[in-house]
Amino acid sequence: MKSLATFNWHELLEQTHGCGGHLAAAHRGFEKVTLETDTRQLGSHDFYVPLSGASFDGHAFIEQAYGQGAVGSLVAADYLEAHPELLRFPNLIAVTDTLLAYQALARFHRRRSKAKVIAITGSSGKTTTKEMLFHYLSAMGRTQC
Q1: CATH class in words for 9-114
Q2: Which pTM was predicted?
């Protein structure tokens, strides 16, 4: 399901500042964007967040993200230093760690949201419990898992 969280340019820069966030490439206007970490799900008003794992590096897909219509992207400063050709893309925000920046943006969104949040933990039954709660709560109003 697509995220309902949207951010404007000022919020993106302000909330990533603590992670070293700074404008690395020219800003071209946009109103609001949603964040996306998966280029397969990317839409034309999305801001790409490349994450790295043990067997992948989302930075390898930054060019593809722009090709699919992304209006901007986070990028790890050390990756950008090794790949200066990325500076040709607009709305590029360099940070020390893209995961930490993503978490900072999520924290900001959570604090400004009026949504009620339920956390389900445990070693078994989480998916079943989540689905039951989703079914029940959907009858009461807008619900997102």
Answers
A1: alpha beta
A2: 0.83
